[in-house]
Write a structure and sequence with these properties.
Pfam families: 2OG-FeII_Oxy_2 (PF13532). It is built from two helices and 15 strands. By secondary structure, the protein is α+β, with helices and mostly antiparallel strands. It has a seven-stranded antiparallel sheet with strand order 1-2-13-10-15-8-5, covered by helices on one side. A four-stranded antiparallel sheet has the order 9-14-11-12, with no helix packed on it.
């Protein structure tokens, strides 16, 4: 088995952080793709959760997420069908799982991507990714400004949790015993995006999932 990348850290069973996994070239490519995806047919949208609009704007691929379900059409936005999940992005997910030593990496077939844009003031409250039928791992990629990421337990939004720094190019994977762990973003650190990543302000987070639908 190939050794994991330098700096790889297991945060909890099944949850692994790989700093600097994406090269600047690959980060810039993801930003270019995000801009194309954001052009439509469904624009970046701040979903409403229990009547409150999120501060994060999301573009979905493959399946459209809306609280608390997946649909092919963005019925809560403009009724248009979302773009297909790119095969290269699914392959990137398999590459990510291979990097963290997941023995089932070759069989990973993410069929949706939630691509979130955070401006300088955006946050994400503690939540579980549990609208999927499948419990295959979630692959998370960060580009742009650094964030403070809180990764907790599977039972409660409160302690115990770990606060991490996710910088541009970082990979975070959570599956297995940590698949339903609560997690969120507490702070964006403006001005921390590295030159050449494709973003001068804000943060893009690409999360790959298997819906099982």
């Amino acid at each position: 088995m190939t050794a994991p990348p330098a700096g790889t850290a297991e945060i909890a069973p099944g949850a692994v952080h790989v700093p600097g996994w994406l090269s600047l070239e690959r980060q810039s490519f993801l930003v270019e793709q995000f801009r194309a995806w954001a052009a439509g047919p469904v624009p970046p949208t701040a979903a409403k959760v229990r009547g409150h609009e999120m501060s994060v704007r999301t573009v979905c691929l493959g399946w459209h997420w809306q609280p608390y379900r997946y649909t092919r059409e963005a019925s809560n936005v403009n009724g248009r069908r979302v773009l297909a999940m790119p095969s290269w992005l699914a392959a990137l997910g398999r590459e990510a799982l291979t990097a963290v030593g997941d023995p089932d990496a070759a069989a990973y077939e993410p069929d949706t991507a939630l691509v979130n844009y955070y401006d300088a003031t955006a946050k994400m409250g503690m939540h579980q990714d549990k609208d999927e039928v499948s419990l295959a791992p979630v692959v998370s990629l960060s580009v742009g400004d650094t964030c403070r990421f809180r990764f907790g337990n599977t039972e409660t939004r409160t302690r115990p949790y770990v606060d991490l720094t996710l910088a541009s190019g970082d990979l975070f994977v959570f599956g297995g015993p940590s698949r339903l762990a609560f997690h969120g973003v507490t702070t964006i650190l403006p001005g921390t995006a590295p030159a050449g990543c494709g973003l001068t302000t804000g943060r893009i987070n690409v999360t790959l999932r298997v819906t099982g639908l």
